[in-house]
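Exercise 3.2. Students should predict the tertiary structure of the chain below and write it as structure tokens, then compare their answer with the key that follows.

Predict this chain's 3D structure.
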Amino acid sequence: MDQELGGESMELRHLRTFETVARTLSVTQAARELHYAQSSVSDQIHSLERELGVDLLDRSQRKVRLTPQGAVLSEYTDRILKLLEETRWAVSRPGSELAIGTLETVGLHLLPTVLSSYRSLYPESRVRVGQDSRGELYKAVRRGDLDLCLTFGDPPHDASLRFETLAEQPLVVIVPPGHHLAARGRAAGLHELAAEPFLATERGCGFREMYDNAFGSTPPKEPVAEVSGIGTLGACVAAGMGCALLPLISVRGQADRGEVVVVEVGDTDLRTTVTMTWLDRNSTNPSLANFQAVLRKQLGG
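Answer key:
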């Protein structure tokens, strides 16, 4: 669809292409991101230059550079595209609905107070909450199916994603009641823990990554069992199958009920982060910004 700009027909796809070239300073990278041929990217930039009557790129050197006129257009293009996204969001979702994704542990232990506070501040807004694995949550954010997801740890590097650490969570070891480490009543070192049988979640799960990375340069032993789901993992520990390394928040309930005993790791500071991730182009969404402010206040304090 064309937009009338100064009496000339300026296509939005040309502006999007120019924005990508201006951001990456590379026609090759822009073509890769946009799934265009390099010749198509060049043709679209030339079309803009003909309409505006100015050079937008300095082609005198091998590296792409913006001309002064190109830098001005880049600023306006950013504003135009962000306004377009905000307009599209407002029209397609007039009910101010937010779609939030979370890990089971975060959703169970951290999100309820956030949702309650958000509801009291913005009663007209609707929130949909779903649970999935880290990898699937990031994919849903990229597709635009989710406005924001909450996970442990940072997301994979992706220029389209933005993320922010909200809080830290200590990692602890849980053992069954009567275990010799529990009876001692003090922290255990990594060298002691390395000798114990551990259970863990399956490979690819964020909790498995925590276990695999906890022992530093010393490769951890293969777990005696791989268990899907934190609830089942904790139940297996309570039944005496072995130990498990998990965020404190995910085991506090079991520990309070006496089903497992928490053993702190004494010779290193093992922690993970609670992180919110969203699509960069949705940063101007006012409802998302409001929800993020509540998250920062509730979890970042």
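Discussion points: DSSP finds 13 helices and 13 strands in the chain. The two ends are 46 Å apart (CA to CA).
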